[in-house]
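### Sample
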Amino acid sequence: MFLPETWNSKLLVVGNYEFLGGINWLDMGPGPKYGMASLSTDTGHNSGAGDISWADTDQKKRNWASEALEGSILLGKSLATAYYSNSPIEYTYYSGCSTGGRQGLKQIQRDPDIFDGALIGAPAWDTKHLMPWVSKLAVWNLPENASHAISDPGLFTRLQAEVLAQCDPLDGVQDNIVSAPELCRRAFNATKIRCGVAAANQSDACWTQPQVETAQKMYADYVTAEEEGGTLVYSGLEYGSEAEWTAYLLPIAPEEYNVRRNFDAQYERYFMNYGADWPITEYNDSVADDSGRRDDGSVAATADQYNLGRFRDRGKIILYGGLADGVLPVGHTTLYYERTVERMGGGRGDLDDFFRYFQIPGMGHCWGTPNNVKAPWMIGGAGQAAQRPPYNSGWSVPLGLNDSRHDALLALMDWVEHGSAPSEIIASEFNFTDSTGQNIKLHRQRPICLYPHVSVWDGRGSQDDATSWTCR
């Protein structure tokens, strides 16, 4: 825990990433800058990013899934109250992205009274289906020397550039951002990236027809074969997300725990108890069904309760996701929101009193944007402050933009404490002013809108100025 000398009677709980074990010091750091005590958990173990071999008992798995966070929050509340001379905690907030987003949703489902507000980014909420999908991506790209395998970084660069060239204009504005991926899904002409075909931003890398077919599988929803029921496992990758496909398809280093050659089988080996020698080549659709049964029966990591009625009575949720997320497809974030709307009875907008969803065009997984896109993405979400100067000591949004119009965490607090529900949040992107990487200036801003509304340019003002855009 971080316990600031000057405390505003608020507690900020932060989540974790991937299957990591260890305290999330970076995301805790902003807490005291907001005047809050802050708390993180190591989820019950220590490990690196691509290592799941620690998951050798059900208790360790449950600790990672939910129990370590829940226990830490309960103890942390008691410690904070005692440290501040028995002063009560007036508000408890949560901020997490990816696994951290899953943790936040899971905790709300387990104990609706534990948070007053939660800022949830790109949640990996559907663990039991997400991890089989990761393995399916690997299988589609094996063996690695096959004609259909995508194994050259230049291929992603070529594809992303072509998607940008064809699909940027589809939303009516030429701004280097694919803001309407659903239109791109219908309109994209994949033949333009094939070998021997001229394309925008032509490079030496070109795609064979078998590789194009592999990419088309990755864009599509993963649905099991008819003999396995023909059911949805996981949403497909979105057009515009190609810059992040390397996260799953290319090794990060020639080490034991790189992503492509090991991480895509570890879930089955350890969480599903298939054994350390289980090869990814044995993956088939029945594994996805088995994953669901095992998670439901023991670990319960998946945060798939959609009736949040008890939390509605006391708390608020801001959910967000990047349209260019190539790690956790934004379609699955939208799926959680839509299922919640359906389960709680009503239509879009009926949950706005406590649950609001925002999509961020051009943003990747949790933060960032490709250099040839430069989309406004920074909204004070989990992990975002550490991506720009002053990096490890950063908080909120730089250059004095630490207010509820630009910072989603402050917007959440304003909603919880004063009833000011956000209909838009202004996202920002910055440029470095020199080669040191320590100094920045504002590049452009744009409002991100309450789903399903989108930001529309007025056709007159600067596209880099938020005042030239309205949510419709």
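Residues 138 and 266 are 12 Å apart (CA to CA). This sample (Carboxylic ester hydrolase) is used throughout the tutorial notebook.
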